Amino acid sequence: MAGAGIMDLVAGKAVVIFSKSSCCMSYTVESLIRNFGANPTIYELDQVSNGRQIERALLQLPGCQQSTPAVFIGQQFIGGNKEVNSLHLRNELVPLLISARAIWI
User: Fold this and answer.
1) Using CA atoms, how far apart are residues 17 and 97, in angstroms rounded to an integer?
2) Beta strand 76-79 with 70-73: parallel, antiparallel or unpaired?
3) Going edge to edge, which strands form the sheet with 70-73?
4) How far apart are alpha carbons 70 and 79 in whole angstroms?
5) How far apart are CA 23 and CA 70, in angstroms?
């Protein structure tokens, strides 16, 4: 699965989080986004049959330092925990979620 395969998984979805069920950072990012009222699509890479293949494809994305969490908002790769929290601290996360139609305010 290449980057195009990843884009197929995020197509048409406002927020997608690639996660692992045992990853506390994935849980933190998911909780933060849900607290704003968004309902992200979650792919638990340790619970889907092609999880390792997806993980390898994620690591090929420009700027992807680790495979989980990998967050897409409005079909754009945002990054992981650090990038999402950085957006939040700069008050840029909510406007991004609104523009992606993940939340309405």
Assistant:
1) 13
2) antiparallel
3) 41-44, 15-19, 70-73, 76-79
4) 5
5) 12
Residue closest to 76 by CA, chosen among 15, 5, 35, 31: 15
Q: H or E stretch including 26?
A: helix 24-35
One-letter amino acid at 34 equals R
In this structure, which long-range contacts are made by residues 35-42, counting pairs with CB atoms below 8 Å and at least 24 apart in sequence? 36/93, 36/94, 36/97, 36/102, 36/103, 37/103, 37/104, 38/14, 38/97, 38/102, 38/103, 39/15, 39/102, 40/14, 40/15, 40/16, 40/102, 41/10, 41/13, 41/15, 41/16, 41/17, 42/16, 42/17
Q: What is the pLDDT of residues 58-105, one digit of tens each?
A: 988 887 777 789 999 999 999 999 999 999 999 999 999 999 999 987
Tens digit of pLDDT for each residue in 4-56?
A: 689 999 999 999 999 999 888 999 999 999 999 999 999 999 999 999 999 99
